[in-house]
Specification:
heterotrimer, A alpha+beta (161), B alpha+beta (656), C alpha/beta (196), A: alpha+beta, 5-stranded mixed barrel, 28% strand, elongated, C: 196 residues, alpha/beta, two-stranded antiparallel sheet, 6 helices, disordered N terminus
């Protein structure tokens, strides 16, 4: 009976150890993998300073979309544009093909890492695909931006393209 | 007239299902045979009327009856005929009707194939299924009537979401629902067993075939979803850890654990509580999945249009079903004290490790999927959990599973020694090492993780083959394989293939997003894709830019690929990728976006996906294994000579 | 020898709290999900549903248009509408949700203090549209016709129904995508009457 009990304790201890270390590992990597939802104003306020991955929502600034224009056959595509919430904006660079329905003046979501130069290097860009997908919180971004604009005397012109 | 007939059919079905829910349960409680036997005709009636309603809705789509609101919302005059069939389940109400139909089908099947069950147990299983069915049909009739009319009728309808206008969508939801809803059967068995009290231990044995089949369908359904997302969404990915995908993966993990737990309980009589809990959890996760997808509280690229009111109904239903079952469990199960005295090294231990790992993996996915909800409630900054976190931690949790998998078949119940088991697998281990070494040398850019993955995949494959070969050698003809053994082998073999596909495509895959015009080419892997032209074409309900690409290896032309960028009449834009498939590699090309005003210069996406088909082939083998397992004759026998754990009876005696 | 062990679980000697654990976990989960649902319902009622995308034109002047009325054939133009706040409702006879929301507009048009509602018949066949209005009622002061969708494109219309609230200076103040509710009409009407 003692032998069986010892075996049981050993098994349970092993399980606890296993589960415990798996949990610890999972929690350690958790924060880095969270995509934080920010607006351009949030980022210019510095809220993204301690965060690794950013999910930026807003509108694509009209006139800000630039694409690779190299004429070398088979050259890699890249695009650069600015995301705005009508108060502040953030530059984004994306090295893949932009989604269907990505358009200047429409909403989009860019997810990636903000470099030291303040440019978001996106690994995923989503535009409004149909009624079913839309970045949460963009409505709030617009409201906050409106308030900030009013507080700043209403004279702020959001970024140049 | 016919839509109203459909409504009536649903109401009649609901009435019959209520009878099915209450009569057998009451009959079993008070011992009234007549009431208990009402289950059979009630189940048959439920199926007939739900099927009738479903066919009426299908007819409304084919006949393009836009006076029915659901038809008008999901199809229009230009929709090709075949997609009018699939549009039936393209929206919320229709897909719920499909759920109800599948549940009615399963209930009927259980009714038909449960003749060998004791009367009261059978009545309770059917009664539970009837109660669940009542909930579903009630939901349909009271909140999501697919037959609501628009009067006056509209001249034309909206479009079916173009993502759904696709052959994959014809079969993916029905398969998935077969799996989701199928988990209700082991659930019903568990509840029935709890209600029985003085139960025949063999309820687990009888619930096994049903669990196997449900798991098989779930495997195939998930695989189809993954394959469909791969070729339809245009991104070349096969799994995104998206909430909707996770919603189907969680019941699969638990069902997988359940199959293994049932093996212990059936053969050794131990871990009954655990098996009961898993049976309850499986179906609960199915319901949770359906809730998450339809309530709109999680953002996902493939969620249905949402409605908090419907979400509330489903949540209430989920609460009743799961809460009710768990309350029953709390009241009844604490009395079961069957101690297992299996050794540390035994089949029981391995299966328990399997369960712990699978349930932990499920818990991981659950936490990651629900975390955004927690941040929402606490008014913390909104977040979403990225795919890499899921992938990395999931791999860590299931890695021991892959290592231990081949051992299970060779380990005896109750106690065995490492010294007895490992020699049987030494050849498999050696072969796996050799193949992994060859792969590492030949494919050149394999990193440590991938090489280990290849090693693991082949270890599982050779280990499974070792088992099959040994049985062939050591046993006379006719006694070599049971259905159960073949099922296990097929499923494990499938997992080996799946693992190989996953790690290889992950590391060896090549993705190029380039700018091309006619006459230019891009190279992927050792292949060249030459863009010949882009022209305008028309489809039945869309206009498209169609690119013509020549796929070459060196100078030899392998295939001509025609990807399209479609614009549907209602304005939706859709990317149709062109794929040259083979088991060894897929070449995948899609039109990205036009880069000039004449639509002659395009951003083109080209992928090389080595061995990606192994992923779905593996899943198909798993499904095949699941189905095979249901045919195990032993599982249908009433009385059985079992080598039971000897302490079980003693423990009960002590209890009394 | 048959080994059918009868497990008798109807007796209740001691209660093990462990069996209550799954139930509590599930209840906790249920609470989390219910709270989220409630939040979502509140968002939807306030017109703040996270599915709705505010137009980038909010705070900007409504794009000018000048077209003909569907029923009377008279001119309908943004210039003529200057000086009063109004609601612009984009609808079509092929649009299912438009039928659902239409009674809301019918009722609204009769309430005192209601803003004038201008309809924009979007990408529609005029005969179908006229029939639709005749059957379902006409709450609109005027109905602008946009058969080719050009006006909609200027407005950033993505589909029907969509509704814009425009103030007396011609600035767009609010856009509702999807079905209009009485509550949103009331809230936004009050906002238009308030300080700018």
């Amino acid at each position: 009976m003692n032998e069986a009990r010892k075996k049981r304790v050993a098994l349970i201890a092993l399980l606890v150890l296993g589960v415990g270390s798996a949990t610890a590992l999972a929690l350690m990597g958790f924060k880095e993998n969270l995509n934080h939802y920010f607006s351009p104003t949030d980022i210019s306020d510095g809220k993204a300073a301690n965060v690794s991955r950013v999910r930026l929502g807003g509108w694509v600034k009209e006139g800000s979309l630039h694409r690779s224009d190299s004429t070398t056959p088979g050259s890699a595509v890249w695009s650069a544009f600015k995301m705005t919430d009508r108060f502040r904006c953030v530059s984004v660079r994306f090295d893949k093909i932009l989604p269907d329905l990505f358009k200047e003046g429409e909403t989009a979501v860019a997810t990636g890492v903000i470099g030291a130069d303040g440019v978001l290097v996106a690994d995923e860009v989503l535009a409004k695909h149909d009624e079913n997908y839309k970045p949460p919180g963009v409505e709030e971004y617009a409201k906050v931006a409106e308030q900030r604009m009013a507080a700043a005397g209403g004279n702020v012109v959001d970024c140049q393209p | 007239m016919t839509p109203e007939l459909g409504q009536v059919a649903l109401i009649l079905a609901l009435c019959l299902t209520l009878i099915l829910g209450f009569a057998p349960l009451i009959g079993a409680w008070i011992g009234n045979q007549v009431l208990m036997r009402l289950g059979t005709p009630a189940a048959a009636g439920q199926f007939v009327f739900v099927a009738f309603a479903f066919s009426l809705l299908t007819y409304a789509f084919i006949a393009q009856d836009f006076s029915v609101k659901y038809v008008a919302d999901n199809s229009n005059t230009e929709l090709p005929l075949i997609y009018r069939y699939t549009a039936v389940w393209g929206g919320h109400e229709g897909s719920k009707l499909l759920w109800a139909l599948v549940l009615a089908g399963w209930t009927l099947a259980v009714t038909a194939f449960s003749g060998h069950l004791p009367e009261t147990l059978r009545a309770r299983v059917l009664g539970t299924l009837g109660l669940i069915g009542s909930g579903f049909l009630g939901f349909l009739v009271f909140t999501s009537n697919p037959f609501t009319r628009w009067l006056p009728p509209m001249p034309d309808g909206n479009d079916l979401n173009p993502l759904l206008q696709d052959p994959g969508m014809i079969i993916h939801p029905p398969m998935l629902y077969m799996g989701y809803v199928g988990m209700a059967v082991p659930f019903a068995f568990a509840v029935a067993a709890l209600l029985e009290g003085k139960m025949d231990r063999q309820w687990v044995r009888w619930s096994r075939p049903w669990t196997n089949v449900a798991w098989a369908f779930l495997s195939v359904g998930i695989a189809l979803g993954s394959w469909w997302a791969y070729y339809e969404l245009g991104w070349g990915g096969w799994w995104f850890w998206d909430p909707v995908e996770n919603a189907s993966f969680m019941p699969w993990l638990v069902a997988c654990a359940l199959i293994h737990a049932q093996a212990i309980t059936e053969k050794r009589g131990t871990f009954v509580n655990w098996t009961l809990l898993l049976s309850i959890a499986g179906f609960s996760l199915s319901l949770l999945g359906t809730f998450l997808v339809r309530s709109g509280i999680l953002t996902s690229v493939h969620a249905f249009a949402s409605d908090p009111l419907r979400g509330a109904y489903i949540l209430g239903f989920l609460g009743l079903v799961t809460g009710g079952a768990l309350t029953l469990f709390a009241l009844r199960a604490s009395n079961i004290r069957v101690a297992s005295n299996a050794a540390l090294m035994s089949k029981e231990s391995l299966l328990i490790i399997n369960n712990v790992l699978l349930v932990s993996a499920c818990f991981l996915v659950l936490c990651g999927t629900l975390w955004p909800l927690v941040t929402e409630i606490m008014h913390w900054p909104k977040v979403s959990v990225g795919a890499p976190w899921f992938g990395a931690n999931f791999s860590l949790i299931v890695a021991p599973l892959f290592i231990l998998m081949p051992l299970g078949a060779f380990t005896r119940w109750h106690g065995d020694t490492v010294a007895a088991i490992l020699p049987k697998l030494k050849f498999a281990a050696l072969a796996a090492l050799v193949v992994a070494a060859i792969a590492w040398l030949w494919l050149k850019n394999l990193d440590v993780k991938t090489t280990l993955g290849v090693l693991g995949g082949f270890w599982i494959i050779f280990g499974t083959l070792s088992f099959l070969i040994r049985r062939w050698r050591d046993k006379p003809a006719g006694q070599r394989y049971t259905a159960e053994m073949l099922a296990m082998s097929s499923a494990h073999f499938g997992i080996g293939l799946w693992l190989l596909g996953v790690v290889l495509v992950n590391t060896l895959g090549v993705e190029r997003d380039v700018r091309l015009k006619s006459g230019e080419s891009v190279s992927v892997g050792g292949y060249t894709l030459l863009m010949k032209s882009v022209t305008q074409v028309s489809g039945p309900n869309f206009e498209a830019d169609e690119g013509v690409f020549e796929l070459k290896s060196g100078e030899q032309l392998i295939a001509v690929l025609r990807p399209q960028k479609r614009v549907y009449r209602r304005g939706n834009v859709q990317t149709e990728a062109a794929i040259d498939p083979s088991l060894a590699r897929d070449i995948y090309v899609a039109l990205g976006e036009p880069l000039d005003a004449n639509r002659q210069v395009w951003a083109v996406r080209a992928y090389l996906k080595p061995y990606i088909r192994l992923i779905w082939l593996g899943a198909l083998l798993m499904g095949f294994g699941g189905l095979l397992g249901a045919f195990e004759r032993r599982l249908r026998r009433r009385v059985e000579q079992t080598r039971m754990a000897p302490t079980a009876v003693a423990a009960n005696a002590v209890q009394a | 020898m048959s080994a059918e062990a009868q497990l008798d679980i109807t007796q209740a000697p001691r209660t093990n709290w462990l069996v209550l654990l799954p139930l509590f976990l599930v209840l906790g989960l249920g609470l989390l999900l219910a709270l989220n649902l409630l939040q979502k319902k509140r968002d939807q009622d306030a017109g703040r549903d996270s599915k709705e995308v505010p137009s980038p034109l909010i705070g900007k002047p409504v794009p000018a248009f000048d077209t003909l009325d569907l029923v009377t054939g008279a001119a309908v133009s943004t210039k003529a509408l200057r000086g009063q706040a109004f609601i612009l409702n984009v609808w079509a006879s092929w649009c299912a949700v438009c039928q659902i929301e239409h009674p809301v507009f019918n009722a609204y048009a009769k309430t005192p203090g209601a803003l004038p509602v201008i309809g924009l018949n979007y990408k529609d066949a005029p005969d179908d549209a006229k029939r639709w209005i005749a059957q379902l009622g006409n709450p609109y002061n005027q109905i602008a016709v946009d058969e080719n969708g050009k006006i909609g494109m200027d407005l950033g219309v993505y589909g029907a129904p969509e509704t814009y609230f425009v103030d007396r200076d011609g600035i767009i103040r609010f856009k509702q995508i999807g079905e209009m509710t009485a509550q949103i009409l009331a809230t936004q009407t009050a906002r238009m009457a308030g300080p700018r």
